[in-house]
Amino acid sequence: NASGAWSGRFSEPVSDLVKRYTASVFFDCRMAAQDIRGSLAHARMLAKQNIIGNQDLSDIERGMAQIIGEIERGEFVWTLDGEDVHMNIEQRLTALIGDAGKRLHTGRSRNDQVATDIRLWLRDAIDSILVLIGDFQKNVLDLAELHAATPLPGHTHLQIAQPVTFGHHLMAYYEMTRRDAERFADVRRRTNRLPLGSAALAGTSYPIDREFVARELGFDEVCENSLDAVSDRDFAIEFCAAVATTMMHLSRLSEELILWMSPRFGFIDLADRFTTGSSIMPQKKNPDVPELVRGKTGRVNGHLIALLTLMKGQPLAYNKDNQEDKEPLFDAADTLIDTLRIYADMITGIKVKPDNMLQALSLGFATATDLADYLVKKGLAFRDAHEAVALAVRAAEIKGGELPHMSIDELRACMAHVAGAGEKIGEDIYAVLTVEGSLASRSHIGGTAPNQVRAAIERARARLAK
Ligand code: ARG
Questions:
Q1: Which of 64, 100, 246, 413 could make an SS bond with 56 (beta carbons 3.0 to 4.6 A apart)?
Q2: How far is the CA of 111 from the centre of ligand 1 (A)?
Q3: What is the spatial distance between Cα 28 and Cα 21, in angstroms, rounded to a whole number?
Q4: Which sequence positions are flagged as catalytic?
Q5: Which residue among 320, 325, 329 is best mutated to probe the pocket of ligand 1, counting the most ligand atoms within 8 A of its Cβ?
Q6: Strands 268-270 and 151-156, how do they pair?
Q7: What domains are defined for the chain?
């Protein structure tokens, strides 16, 4: 390894295959900006502590500025011989500025360097994700507001259960992603700690100032144990767990969009830009984007398991295994970022079909619970009311209709077995059996009544504005 940083120790070079196998430059080069930021902060600290000279520092700053330009212009030559982003940049720096470049790595190891780079990178990724979750939520709130009173069949077991509003249903996804955002903010707190200064594993004998470096890089605090700082990747695992959870939520929404768009439901249409046709069936308009969100959720789950498995057998401190942390981490972030971007737009392209939603609600006895509650309010015990309504549903089914189609006499007759039930029924029963009545009656915080949905949207908007 002629160009390696440790060539003196070795009697033969590694094979090309081993070089390729051990290199990470082709994926970790995307941390170049973070690597340079970290190096500059380290160099400033070294100069401040008189570990390197001020001339060294200004040479390093000049060289790094040049390298940043080369990378931005696409002129920087990444080499396999350089192995990873850290050594590629350091080698180029030394080629540009000479001896000062060789002093940069004083009191530092690639082990604390890479851990710092990943944390800086991840912090940026989390900040982007938080903004994108907010964008998604804003569009969800807009659609929910339009449909705060639009009746939708609520399902359990994919069977029609009770009426809800479409706005209320959408607001469930606002709540899920609100917790997702909390999770990311929480991961960010633990990510935003500085490993640099831990050196290879034991710390360093130079009179370093870690707090200074932490401040330079915007870290909230320093990692307090050098062995832990260079070797653990729990922050990356937590991040992937938060990504997997968010993707799981979006996957559920995707599953619903797919169902709702199916002609069997016919509740919505997706804008054409999120769908594709079939190469053979001319009539098809397929919900490819939500299907891919559902599919990519599996891939992200895999990344979480990959990282957990990567860490579980590693003795302290750093092991090269850790180099395998980056691809799953990057891909998890990329996948979620693309998914959120596309989803925010997709929400605005949902065309709602309220007539079909209402039509579906008129089947399936969606207001049966309301009838039971009606009897309870008139003095029947809930279990008796439940039984009386079950009898009514059965009778309606035999007759081939729904509850509102039954006359008062028919309702009384079928409930005859339940003592006291029939006599509770009066003309006011029909108001209770309507969808609007059912919706309006669930008027408490968290309920589906349109006024409650609007209040929830208002609270959400206030939170987003903060
Ligand atoms: N490319 C390595 C990584 O991603 C950098 C740290 C290498 N350190 C070492 N001692 N081999 O983890």
A1: 100
A2: 6
A3: 14
A4: 157, 278
A5: 320
A6: unpaired
A7: 15-106 (1.10.275.10), 111-143+165-359 (1.20.200.10), 361-465 (1.10.40.30)
